[in-house]
Amino acid sequence: MPAVSNASPAARDGRPHVDEPAAYDAILLAGFGGPEGNDDVMPFLRNVTRGRGIPDDRLEEVAQHYYHYNGVSPINQHNRELKAALEQELAARKIEIPVLWGNRNWEPYLGDAVAQAKADGARSLLAVATSAYSSYSSCRQYREDLWQALDDADARDVLTIDKVRQFFDHPGFIEPFVDGVDDALARLAEADLDLATQVEVLFATHSIPTADARNSGPRDTDFGPGGAYEAQHRAVAEVIMLAVEQRRRSRAEQAPQTPWQLVYQSRSGNPATPWLEPDINDAIGDLPPGRRAVVIVPLGFVSDHMEVLWDLDNEARESAVDRGLEVIRVPTPGTHRAFVRGLIDLVEERLAGTPASARPAATTLGPWFDVCRPGCCLTGSSGQRPTVAGVECSADSAS
Known about the structure:
12 helices; 4-stranded parallel β-sheet; 2 domains; Rossmann fold; alpha/beta; single chain
């Protein structure tokens, strides 16, 4: 039995970085999914929380955030735009591979996309997930759902699915945030704010249970109490702030060190369960006297969706305004030119079999793995569901 379930021949032996060229019949853009009308909201939330035993009255509280926007999350439209941008970049590079799109939690579903690929005669897919970091929910669960999509489409005997590496420190993902923070600080400097004492940069990402954070990344590496998830975010934030300072100096502008911190948002579940902290609203409340503005950077998000619109643009903004602070929220990468180019660079890595030593990575943590390591991001609550793009072992088995 191969070490990696339903992998291409190049990835089947489980090496961390695949340095053999591979051919793919299609790229599968794997999204989270979101509702596109009020009637979709509760079924969508039930999909997201399936198996957790969360009652509908709790889901109704979250549903109100969606109803505020007529039940429409922007995430599906963003993925339509990203799919079109990826197709345009592929055409510009003369790479003739179609792009399919499927979601984990709403239409179009991953299973439908895989079934269509099978019907079209495809035999090998390369997945690009709209999630940059390592954790159960941001990597392993995508890999589980991709395996399930193969099973649902009765395609395990005919289709392989590889997955590009987690791209948290790829320059194409980082550049849009550098642009956004640079622009925000320039605006605040023009308003005569002292960037060293009156401004705080808040890098925001989704909170996860601390137990899941500890288990994020390979099990044979100690990333600290927050696991690979926290370490990756912190390393990327440091790179962004350094790049912004360098840009300002290159323009002969003052480049004081602006205070920043990593904060969390959108926690859910049992209040007694420890989650990563501080919450962004608490962090805003605890800012030292003298702060007059905050720059909110949605570092954990590829594109806008409800947890950006509601938790940052509404709740966090309200917390800041209540303290008399000016607020600038930096854009998500979306279809930023550098981000789109970066995703296709990741595709070309696998087409060419680019060795790890030749791959771009802006932190010392990367380049991350093409094939996840045994037990990577496995949580106690997730059980031992089978996956693609990861090495199987006794604790990570598809059987």
